[in-house]
Write a structure and sequence with these properties.
The protein is an alpha/beta fold. It has helices at residues 42-48, 98-101, 151-154, 160-170, 186-197, 212-218, 229-234, 280-283, 297-310, 324-331; strands at 2-8, 17-23, 30-40, 65-72, 84-87, 90-92, 113-114, 134-138, 142-144, 178-182, 201-206, 222-225, 239-244, 259-267, 288-291, 316-320, 339-343. Helix 4 (160-170) packs across helix 5 (186-197). The structure holds NADP nicotinamide-adenine-dinucleotide phosphate and zinc ion (2 copies). One zinc ion (ZN) binds at residues 41, 43, 63, 89, 159.
């Protein structure tokens, strides 16, 4: 075992504080990683605040991890010392169920092991995430960082990137289709970049009028203000696909009429209850609501390679580790441009 420093939430109503955790000794298939940068996902905030009622403390968030291999187990084949690597939202799965068999580890029927807050045989009984100096991960769940991708700008690809890439690929987004991305935050800004790179006509659907210029700069062809009822009405029946990233309770009925006949709105934002659904929006147009969770390991590697090929990175605001509580505060006010990334060298 090795002690590593980190920042942890010790209770749902407290700021994150400096802390220490134990990492397991390196097993034959393990890769030990010195963490260089870790992105800050809204899910980290949900878990730190126990929004979903299943947080275990101390809780060390962070699942957008990039760094350098500092040791490998005897049977590790994919990685070598000094290599740049990444870890995303999960660090284990059963490897045998029907989901794992088709590279959909995120939907493991025996329970995927999240990078943090998941029951584990590791020291402490739970996994601890990337707001830390070091991590030890089974090589199957470690990603190869392609040459030429800036490490800090690439960190958010490990969650915000794959969570938006995966549904766009699954619904076969391509030229000739019209896509709306709802919510211009960490996920939303990656959704715009990917939908644009895949050739779709892309609209940013935002609750913040002041983000319009940024949306266009990020690759949107147009901007729709969700509070502008007349503009929303004018865009009814226009979209093949909507990617909904809103992190809080809201009303799907506001957005569903934007879909064409047979269109789909995919939810990747908040888990939990939303406003009552009026089935009229679905029935009048054979529309669909779907959901999607991050992406499998193979697809995550494909997404990283796609980003290297298209030079796609996250637009980041770098923060020191002790800036995390202020970053959470800003994130709660939709004030992030467009992903905070922690410089882990600032953690003693
Ligand atoms: N499904 C998955 O696998 C997965 C993976 C990662 C994260 N998530 C979840 O996805 C959500 C978004 O994460 P994120 O990191 O992108 O968050 P974020 O950076 O905070 O961005 C969320 C954006 O949603 C919009 N928004 C916020 N409150 C709103 C409201 N009341 N009504 C309408 N729009 C609102 C804002 O954009 P505008 O100002 O443009 O409106 C905000 O910037 C979180 O709930 C997170 O837990 C899911
Ligand atoms: Zn995330
Ligand atoms: Zn499985």
């Amino acid at each position: 075992m090795a002690t590593t420093s980190c920042f942890a939430a010790l209770a749902s109503d407290q700021d994150l504080v400096p802390h220490h955790i134990e990492r397991r000794s390196i097993g034959p298939k393990d890769v030990a990683i010195d963490i260089a940068f870790c992105g800050v996902c809204h899910t980290d905030l949900h878990f730190a605040k126990n929004d979903w009622g299943r947080s275990n403390y101390p809780l060390v968030p962070g699942h957008e991890i990039v760094g350098t291999v500092n040791a490998v187990g005897a049977d590790v084949k994919k990685f070598k010392l000094g290599q740049k690597v990444a870890v995303g939202c999960f660090v284990n799965s059963c490897h045998t169920c029907s989901s794992c068999a088709v590279d959909l580890e995120q939907y493991c029927l025996n329970g995927v092991t999240g990078t943090y807050n998941a029951a584990s045989v590791d020291p402490g009984g739970f996994t601890y995430g990337g707001y830390s100096k070091h991590i030890v991960v089974d090589e199957h769940f470690v990603l190869r960082m392609p040459e030429g991708l800036d490490l800090a700008g690439a960190a958010p690809l490990l969650c915000a990137g794959i969570t938006t890439y995966s549904p766009l690929k699954h619904w076969n987004i391509q030229a000739g289709m019209r896509v709306g991305v709802i919510g211009l935050g960490g996920l939303g800004h990656m959704g715009i970049k990917f939908a644009h790179a895949m050739g779709a006509q892309t609209t940013m659907i935002t609750s913040s009028a002041h983000k319009a210029q940024d949306a266009l700069r990020l690759g949107a062809d147009g901007v729709l203000l969700s509070s502008d009822a007349a503009a929303m009405q004018a865009m009814a029946n226009q979209f093949d696909f909507l990617l909904n990233t809103i992190p809080v309770y809201h009303d799907y009925n506001v957005y569903l009429p934007l879909l064409k006949v047979d269109g789909t709105m995919c939810i990747v934002g908040t888990i939990g209850m939303n406003a009552e659904l009026n089935a009229r929006s679905l029935i009048m147009g054979r529309r669909k609501i779907a959901g999607s969770l991050v992406g499998g390991i193979q697809e995550t590697q494909e997404m990283l390679d796609f980003c290297a090929q298209h030079q796609i990175l996250s637009d980041i605001e770098m923060i020191p580790m002790d800036g995390i509580n202020q970053a959470y505060e800003r994130m709660q006010h939709s004030d992030v441009k467009y992903r905070f990334v922690i410089d882990m060298s600032t953690l003693a």
